[in-house]
UniProtKB/TrEMBL annotation:
GO terms for cellular component: cell surface. Keywords: Competence. One of its GO terms (biological process) is establishment of competence for transformation. The keyword ATP-binding does not apply. It is found in: Cell surface. It comes from Oceanobacillus limi. This is Prepilin-type N-terminal cleavage/methylation domain-containing protein.
């Protein structure tokens, strides 16, 4: 019996307990990292959509705009109300239209109506500001 090599039951249980504690501690870090990546991806998509609407407004005669809803936004082409694309917000996110319900640009690339929208996520709130001029807007983290 003394020549047999291996681990005792107590050693295996101790190792498994340490492993389970490490896994339990690393899970919340992964979830918050995933949420931050989701926020980054959403705002990157929003910026690309705003740039698309601005470029299409310069090159087309159609009235192209982004219509904001509470849980999504739509890219709409022309006077038709049929959207080109609908972008849904993740769960527990919402848009507050402070003084802007559509984002659209003139033929020279300047914004038609300046304003601000607030996007609230699970982690924080962001003010997306569209100033007068040819800029596409910028994002501020709302410190509350």
């Amino acid at each position: 019996m003394k020549n047999m090599k291996g681990f005792t039951l107590l050693e295996v249980l101790f190792t498994l307990a340490i492993l389970s504690i490490l896994i339990t501690l690393s899970a919340p870090l992964t979830i918050s990292s995933l949420a931050k990546h989701q926020e980054k991806q959403f705002f990157q998509t929003l910026q690309f959509d705003v740039m698309l609407v601005q470029n299409l407004s310069i090159n087309n005669n159609n009235y192209i705009r982004i219509k904001l809803n509470d849980k999504s936004y739509e890219l709409i082409n022309g006077a038709r109300s049929k959207p080109i694309a609908i972008r849904n917000l993740p769960k527990k996110w919402y848009i507050t239209k402070q003084n802007l319900d559509t984002i659209s640009f003139n033929r020279d690339g300047s914004i038609r109506r300046a304003g601000t929208i607030k996007i609230t996520t699970e982690q924080s709130s962001y003010n997306v500001v569209f100033p007068l001029g040819k800029g596409r807007g910028y994002i501020n983290i709302d410190k509350e």
